[in-house]
Amino acid sequence: MALSxxxxxxxxxxxxxxxxxxxxxxxxxxxxxxxxxxxxxxxHSIIKKTVTEAVSKETRMGASLLRxxxxxxxxxxxxxxxxxxxxANFTGEKTAGPNQxxxxxxxxxxxxxxxxxxxxxxxxxxxxxxxxxxxDSVVALGGxxxxxxxxxxxxxxxxxxxxxxxxxxxxxxxxxxxSSFSNQGFNAKEMIALSGSHTxxxxxxxxFRNRVYNDNNINSSFARSxxxxxxxxxxxxxxxxxxxxxxxxxxRYFKDLISQRGLxxxxxxxxxxxxxxxQVRTYSSNAKAFSSDFAxxxxxxxxxxxxxxxxxxxxxxxxxxx
Length: 322
Ligand code: HEM
Ligand SMILES: *[C@@H]1O[C@H](CO)[C@@H](O)[C@H](O)[C@H]1NC(C)=O
Ligand SMILES: *[C@@H]1O[C@H](CO)[C@@H](O)[C@H](O)[C@H]1NC(C)=O
Fold this sequence. Notes:
Elements: H1 2-25, H2 43-57, H3 60-73, H4 106-119, H5 126-140, H6 160-166, H7 174-182, H8 188-195, E1 202-204, H9 205-214, H10 220-229, E2 239-241, H11 252-258, H12 265-268, H13 277-285, H14 287-302
Antiparallel strand pairs: 1-2
Bound molecules: protoporphyrin IX containing FE and 2-acetamido-2-deoxy-beta-D-glucopyranose (2 copies).
One 2-acetamido-2-deoxy-beta-D-glucopyranose binds next to loops.
């Protein structure tokens, strides 16, 4: 009795504190580690199993799921807005420039959601699924792990224009990259660590063509082999790995940059005689430093402006609002 009185007055206290925070900073995050402990205790093993199976079927899926979380979080916070399908009277984020014909992994998210709806209907948000799936993907490919907090809710809207303006372009300069990440609260070092995501996955010829024909800070034998895969016209969807060990999450990406073997123009901008060079050298020679900075930056990214409390909803189908 006394304990529950204490616990409810404690809740009241945190609620009041939260209101105060809400009034002063207009953000009141209440993500927590045990959010689903009572309502869906097995949710994590369901996600992990489905992600692990998907990645063992197709290695690249791990990269695609990591990127999906990034493209969600940088566009008005981690609220699963990226998952909403377009309809006759609604244009979401899927056809924005950085996403169209590019982001993938929706079927894996649907599979996870279907399983979770069977176990604990209406409980686990699509935004939390994306966050856990990204972490489990990195782990499945040999990268570091980190603790994910839960309690994000799903948006009822999406922003085509914010997807176009907030997601960095592969033509970005170092200055553009620093500014795009700074707009989301990340410093240059965190931006460099997060860019290490390009240690896994692939990119289409259309996003690296300009680099392999026109950049002069590219390794010449590397450029030659890429031109063979990416003709000056046509072959837009031909894929190339983002680093020379794109199936495993390691620090090879940074070593490749030092050999002028970055695939995207924006990748090589991190090692082009500018202010990021020293950090790239550090990560190229210190895998542990990269792993631990990457994990910390991912926690920060995962916690970008979530919808909590009664804002948003828990979508039943990640592709549409309830
Ligand atoms: C620093 C600025 C960034 C730029 C300019 C950028 C740009 C791109 C581009 C153009 C592609 C290839 C898309 C395609 O060919 O369809 C790509 C792939 C990818 N990006 Fe980024 N990205 C950036 C940062 C990030 C971050 C922060 C993450 C994750 C936290 C990330 C994760 C990925 C992954 C894993 C892939 C491979 C996806 C797959 O194989 O399906 N990127 N990125
Ligand atoms: C949009 O179209 C759907 C049917 O596709 C309809 O159910 C919904 O009410 C429409 N919403 C608005 C805001 O017009
Ligand atoms: C080009 O790549 C090869 C193979 O990785 C490497 O040995 C060489 O040092 C690179 N050249 C330059 C200029 O970085």
